[in-house]
Amino acid sequence: MRKEYLTLNRVQGPLIVLSNVKDVAYDEIVDIIVDGKDKKKGKVVQIHKDKAIIQVFESTIGMAVDNTSVHFRGESLKIPLSKDILGREFNGVGECRDKGGEIYSSKKYDVNGRPMNPVARKYPRDYIQTGISSIDCLSTLIRGQKLPIFSGNGMQHNELAAQIVKQAKISEENEENFCIVFGAMGIKYDDANFFKKNFEEAGVLEKVVMFTNLADDPIVERIVTPRCALTAAEYLAFEEGMHVLVILTDITSYCEALRELSSLREEVPSRKGYPGYLYSDLASLYERAGMMIGKQGSITQIPILTMPNDDITHPIPDLTGFITEGQIVLSRGIQQRDIYPSVNILPSLSRLMKDGIGEGFTREDHSEVSNQIFAAYSKVQDVIALAQVIGEEELSELDKNYMEFGRVFENRFLKQDYDENREMEETLDLAWQVLGILPRKELDRVSPDILNKYYKAMER
User: Fold this and answer.
1) Same-domain pairing of 148 and 282
2) What is the spatial distance between Cα 221 and Cα 223, in angstroms, rounded to a whole number?
3) Is residue 134 part of a domain?
4) What is the mean pLDDT of residues 376-383?
5) Per-residue pLDDT at 18
6) Which DSSP string do the residues of 178-238 spell out, in sequence order?
7) 327 and 202: one domain?
8) Which Gene Ontology BP annotations are present (predicted)?
9) Mean of pLDDT over the chain
């Protein structure tokens, strides 16, 4: 028999406190009735002896200790899933936001998921082409990888995310089984409309599942949004055999919500006020990406986070970097030079790239041309620093060559139009064209055979 609790101890922001409870579990979902008619949902986030603290998924306005009743469901939050979710939009707790009607399924899935057994993991190999040269050539995205984008407030990460969704593709034999799960946390109305409009115009909406938590939605819902998105991705990947690309934006909004709720629960804060369990909480999201032995599908994750004050040592990017397999870093300085996408290639890397490129995957010269571009662009930064001291006119001819390489690299290779979709072959050919500015003897990261086959000095 299900018990009904008719009085609360107190209401504190999005939390309600209840005492004298029995047989209640952590993460259990509750039904909350206000004034006998207004129904809300919540979940148990803390239990101490006979007291339970419940997060309410909606506003607590109008709630009082004597007009609210609580029913415990005896189960955690579950959402119904089927292949019909493709092309649909849901809110942060998996309820339909569009006009497509409810999803009917014989099975419901726990949004908290379970960590993938390391023994059951399959090592990622094949690459995903994004059509963006700075990513495809220099920080290649591998299917089953988690590769975050580190950005800053006011930068063009939304445009980059939308472009990746529109252009991302895998090998042609698996193209029909490719889809995208898009989870947005704390985004503004105009950003949400921007994504939907772009997906519709590009004709990719039918292969995208959207979970959107808007800026004025409850912060509690923000905590659940990525878990709903990842649960949908796991269903599509491991039960429907699809290759799923999950894009989560903005992880910083998620962490801010976590910090606010932690403060309301009066937990002891850690670095910059974030809860001490921030690392394990982020890991519970990121580690749901991967491939499993015996399963056809895969989950690839691109979390996007805005670094507060562009500080890469801030706890959110710092902890994210420990968990994930590389990062793509956007630079405000490069964006101010009117270059899109403003990827700073030097701090960017993909740790799994080496096993998914080269002969049989992309092209035989990929690894070496990538290493050479990193080395040359690093040298460019040294020459720029020297030029600021002695003036560009006093540089040697070789240093002037490097300065020209840097300008051409940024304006021809890094820079591309928002709707420009470059094939991998085109990207690698363009890399060789840019390297043609430098003398052959400077290309010391490339083997003689590859150099003879691909290098061609640029005509002046």
Assistant:
1) yes
2) 5
3) yes
4) 93
5) 87
6) EEEEEEEEEE-HHHHHHHHHHHHHHT-GGGEEEEEEETTS-HHHHHHHHHHHHHHHHHHHH
7) yes
8) proton motive force-driven plasma membrane ATP synthesis
9) 88
Beta strands 10-12 and 38-48: pairing type?
Answer: unpaired
Q: Transcribe 233-282 into DSSP letters.
A: HHHHHHTS--EEEEEEE-HHHHHHHHHHHHHHTTPPB-GGG-BTTHHHHH
Region 338-361: mean pLDDT is 90
Sequence-distant (≥ 6) Cβ neighbours of residue 281 within 8 angstroms: 258, 275
Question: Does residue 144 sit within a domain?
Answer: yes
Backbone angles phi, psi at 292, to 5 degrees: -120, 140
Indicate the pLDDT class of residue 2, thresholds 50, 70 and 90.
low
How high is the pLDDT of residue 59?
A: 78
Amino acid in the structure at residue 4? E
Q: How far apart are the C-alpha atoms of 70 and 51, rounded to whole Å? A: 13
Phi, psi of 229 (to 5 degrees): -60, -45
Q: Which two tokens stand for residue 321?
A: 């970097």
Q: 349 near 369, Cβ under 8 Å? A: no
* Amino acid (1-letter code) at residue 366: H
Residues 180, 235 within the same domain: yes
Residue 132 and residue 163: Cα distance in Å, rounded?
9
Q: How far apart are the first and last CA of the chain?
A: 85
Residue after which a domain boundary falls, among 52, 75, 98: 75
| Residue 13: count of CB within 10 angstroms of its CB | 15
Give the residue with greater pLDDT, 394 vs 381. Answer: 381
Q: What CATH number has the domain bearing residue 65?
A: 2.40.30.20
Residue type present at position 231: T
Nearest partner of 382 among 396, 368, 399, 365, judged by Cα: 399
Q: Which of 303, 330, 355 is the last residue of a domain?
A: 355
Listed range (50-54, 332-336, 401-405) with the worst mean pLDDT: 50-54
Strand, helix or coil at 452? helix
Tell me, yes or no, whether 102 and 38 share the same domain.
no
Instruction: Give the residue numbers spanning the domain of 407.
Output: 365-454
pLDDT at 425 over 90: yes
The answer to whether 189 and 253 have CB atoms below 8 angstroms apart is: no
The rounded distance, in Å, linking the Cα atoms of 320 and 317 is 5
Of the pLDDT bands very low, low, confident and very high (cuts 50, 70, 90), residue 404 is very high
Q: How many CA atoms does the CB half-sphere of 176 hold within 13 Å?
A: 1
CA distance 115 to 102: 28
Phi/psi of residue 12, nearest 5 degrees: -135, 100
Whole-angstrom Cα distance, residue 435 to residue 280? 43
> CB–CB of 243/237 below 8 Å?
yes
Cβ(11)–Cβ(55) under 8 Å? no
Comparing C-alpha atoms, which of 110, 44, 46 is closest to residue 71?
44
The verdict on residue 360 lying in a domain is no
